[in-house]
Every structure is written in C-alpha cells, then in structure tokens.
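Researcher: Going back to the complex we discussed earlier. I've cleaned up the inputs and rechecked each line, so this should be the final set. Can you rerun the prediction on the complete assembly and write out the structure?
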Amino acid sequence: MASAIAIAGLATAEAVALRTQDVPTVTFTRDIAPIVFTSCAPCHRRGGPGPFSLTTYDEVRRRATQVAEVTRSRFMPPWKVEPGVGHYLDQHPLTGPQLALIETWARTGAPRGNPQDLPRLPDWPDGWLLGKPDLIVRPSQAFSLQAQPTDAFRIFAIKVPLSKRTYVRGIEFHPGNARVVHHANIRIDRTPATRLLDEADPLPGYDGLMPRSAEYPEGHFLGWTPGQVAPLVSPELAWPLEPNSDIVVQLHMQPSGAVEQVLPEIGFYFSDRPPSRTPTILRLGSQGIDIPPGESRYVIRDAYTLPVDAQLLAIQPHAHYRAREIRGVADLPDGTSRLVMHIKDWDFRWQHVYREVTPIRLPKGTRLSMEYTYDNSAANARNPQLPPARVFWGQRSKDEMGDLWFQLLAGNDRDRELLTAQITTKMTAEDIIGYETMLKVDPRDAELHDDVALLYLGLGQAADAVRHFQASAALKPELAAAHFNLGTVLAQAGRLDDAVVAFRAALDRRPGYALAHNNLGRVLLAQGRTGDALKHLQEAVRLDGANPQALFGLAEAYAAVGSYDLAVETIDRALKLPMPEALAQQVLVKREQYLRRRPPGLLIELSSAAP
Ligand code: HEC
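Model: Rerun complete. Updated structure for the full complex:
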C-alpha cells in the first residue's frame, strides 16, 4: 500500500512534493503496473483481443479515468458471473484494495512513480499457449470482412485431415484477426451437411444456420471468447475425432470500419489412448420463446432431476441480445439449494464456458433448474430491433434463444447410459418445440416439416410425423421423396391403405424409385395382396439388387405365394451383401423357416424415410 514512508526514499520531485503535503501516493510503476500487466495486458497488448494496448505508462495514463470506470463497474476484466457464484478456471476478479488503488491513482493525476519499481512486462508467447499442437487446421482461404455497419456471422466447414479415429484432449483457437472476431462457436459435423452449405457459397464460409448435425463432440463443450483457452482434459476424458468429419467454426465478428482479412486457426492436442469416461451434456432451456413487443420481463424456466449421482464439470449459458438476467440453481436432495450460475447483466458478446475449479458433487435426485429473463422493450439498450417487434425462438441473432448447458460426469458407464438416454429424450422433445416455433413463423418451409417429422419418429410419435410429412408433401407435391416419406410413416402408424396411396403417388412422380417399390411391396404383402406385392418387390430388386432389404422383401413375397425355393435362393443372394450383424441373424432364422416350408411371419423393417 502506498504511504508517505514508503516513498520517503524516492528522489523524484513529484515524490518529494507529495511527501511534504503528506498525501499517500499511488504510482503506476509500483502499484498500478502489477495489476494492469496481470489482469489487463494479457488481452490489451499488440496482437491481443483487446481493442488497444495497456502495456506502458503512457498507454494506461491516457485512459486512466476510463480504466477506473470500467474496473469499478466490473465491466473489465470481462467476467459476467456475479461475485461469489461458483469458482471457475480463468476467473481473476480484481480485489477491493486493487480497485481502490486504481481509483486513487486516476483521481490523483495518474503519477508515474519511480521507474525502478516497474515490474517486467510478462512474455506472451506469440504462438500456442498450450504448446505445439499435434494438428493445425484452418479454412483454405481468408474471409474478407467488409466495412459494414452491423455485426457479421460466418460459418466455415474445415475438413478433418485424419485417416483414422483420433482422441482429442483439447483445442486452442486463434481468431486470425483479434480486432474483429468477437467469439467463435465450434462444433463437429460427421455428415457432409455443413460442407455442402459452405461449398454452395462462392466466398469462404457461408452466412446462415448451422445444420443440426453440427454438434459438440460427445460430452464436451468447444468454443472461444477473447482470452479464454480451456486447459487440456485428462486422457481419461479425451473425445474422438473421426476422419471424414468437418470442424465447424462460426465466427461472430464486429467490423472495424476497414476491410479486414480473417483466417482462424485451430490447434488440436491428441491423446495416445481412447478415453475411459465420457461426460454427458444436459441442455436446459425453452425453444417456445415468443416475446410480445414491449414486454420487459419475459421469463422462461426449465428443470431436470438427476436420476443418478453426477459431478458438474462446467456450465455454459447461451442467449442472444434481449436476455438480461440468467440464473441456474441446483436443489440438492438434502433440501439445500445452490446457485450455480447467476448473471445479472447478460451480454451476448461474452459467450463463455465456465469450468469449475473443483467439480461439484450432485447426488441422485438433485434438481437442476434455469430461469432467464428477457427485456424486449425500447428501454433495453441492447434490443437490436427498434421499435421492438414480436420475437420468436430461433438461431439467427435477431431471434432469441435461452439455453443453460451443463457438463455432467456420471460415476460409471451404466449411470451414464441412463442419464444420456433420458437427456436425449428430453432435449429432442424441446427441439421439437423449437421446430414448431419456427413453423409458426414460417409454416411453408417444407424442410422444417421434414426435420421435425423425423424427430417425432425418433420419439415414436408416428401420428405427429404423419401430420408434418403431409404438410411437406402438400408444399412440394411434385417431389417423389415427400410422398415416399409420408407413405413410410403412414405404414408405421398402421394406416396401410393411406400408405399405399402415398407410395403410388411417389411412383407416379418417379417410376424408377426402388425404395418406394420396396416399401409398397411390403405394405401390400402385409395386406395379403401377395400378387401385387410380388410385382413391386421384383421391380425393387431389379432396380437395386444391392439393397438387402429389397431382397428380403422379395424372399418373403416368394414364400407368401408358396415359392419356398425361390425364397431361400433370394435370401442367399442377400446374405452375400454387407449388412448389420443383427439383421443377418434375423434373416437366418427366416431361411430356416423357409427350408422347413413354414408360412412366413411378417415383417422385416421398411426402408426408412429419406427426405
Ligand atoms: C479477456 C480479455 C480482456 C481482459 C483480461 C481485459 N479486457 Fe478490456 N476489453 C477487452 C475487449 C475484447 C474489449 C472490447 C469491448 C468489448 O468487446 O466488450 C475491451 C474493452 C476495454 C475498454 C473499453 C471499454 C469501452 O467502453 O469501450 C477498456 C477501458 C478496457 N477494456 C480496460 C480493461 C482493463 C483496465 C482491464 C484490466 C483490469 C481489462 N480491460 C481487461 C478484453 C479484455
């Protein structure tokens, strides 16, 4: 602490003058530099994510008042969680005495002090903070961010250049232009969906939504906010990265006023062995958000009770611009309640993953809950639409979202499977609400109808799937696949006559549609219309002899008309094709029955929907 005694030995005129007035002096070199170099300069330095440097006396003095303001208000260093809630990695709040020093220093003219007191500015390695990565990936070309007035979002699909499954302990993200990149969402897509969207846009990356197939790797968060580098996880918790998948990077950028080149890079750190444990990710939230214009206190809530013991490893809130307050609570079975997340002044620009220093034990029966409050009035300075408009749930930044993600670690594999299965069902049900919300906004989007129909099917709700495939077929009556999908779910819902009509509609539009012949043949067989069934199944095999399902269907049709020899011959043909082991077993049983000339029992599965 500064005092007249402490500066008594200084020879500078300034110090002497202060001593004579007996005013305690706070100096940059002795008191302020240690704080700024540790808590601010990691971001506020050349090449860092902060908008200006705070690494020399002149740089800090010039902004002394502003520095005092942003530290007093706790706007800087950026940390949105209320003090006292949780204990997280990378959390370095300034202490009360530190705040007082900054305040006094700014108020007393920001004196320099004795140059000999100045601590050394830390070294920040230019390269990788986690060490040399095992793999570095980047988009093939930089994106040119134009000098536009509004924030920009861009999604890149970067191919994983691996030839075999590899286990990952962590990543380090480099924004490639710290001046404009404000945060990054990172996912893995094991399907070509994101790549196709990226390729369809002539510029690097694309502007739009991430497909559903772009996901967190099982059990792990990926993402980046300025200054955040998640430490490597232990090898027991590493996650698999598959060849032929894509790393999906969504950048949120704030244009600088000039054209900027942006080329992000991701370094991967591998593990030499497969993991022994996998965390589970729980998402609480609401996808039914529908906020009237002007509403200043719109609240969403959600909760889930743990069926097994688990540890809470990390937590990540997500919302867009209108969210104000964010709360997450764990109510333990012993009656105690613990605030696990609380942000009073949510800021969309700080999408942070909060990793617990020590995992929190959550016994079976713990109720995890979230409550978010939104302000869609004109009084909310962050409201992106003025005058305020009705806002729905959606992934675009002008829509709203409200998720609280928990990374949980169950005690053993059995518990994990139970937890994961329950959570998947819960999250699918909420995803469905999200699709229904988007369809409220855009009821004529056939792809949304197709997607949500498949989700309903996953939950075994065939009647709802039928409703949406009907809507999709009505919107795209010329599309054979739409009628095929509808027929398939009608058959699964037991509506065989309607299914026949739908399959015939598909075949009217595409006579060479092998799967439609196959499924129609199956349904006719189930209806006992064996002659007609045989005709369609023969056609299905003629069109695509490499589909074992079609061959089995045909075998059943042969058996149904009493041609057991042909049935066995057809099955043997099918058994030469690659197929899942379980299916092969099922078919071998049938083969036995046909050899003994038993009447067939229906039915092997229909070929599934293919929008
Ligand atoms: C984790 C990185 C990081 C750290 C640490 C950090 N800043 Fe910042 N700071 C930023 C970023 C990024 C911005 C740009 C504003 C924004 O995007 O919200 C910023 C903005 C500012 C601003 C401008 C505020 C405004 O209203 O425009 C000041 C002043 C500031 N920081 C001071 C500090 C001080 C003082 C410290 C240390 C006590 C500090 N910062 C620590 C990243 C950081």
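Model: Worth noting: The pocket of heme C is lined by residues 39-40, 42-44, 49-51, 63, 66-67, 70-71, 76-78, 226-227, 349 (CB under 6 Å).
Researcher: Good, that matches what I expected from the previous run.
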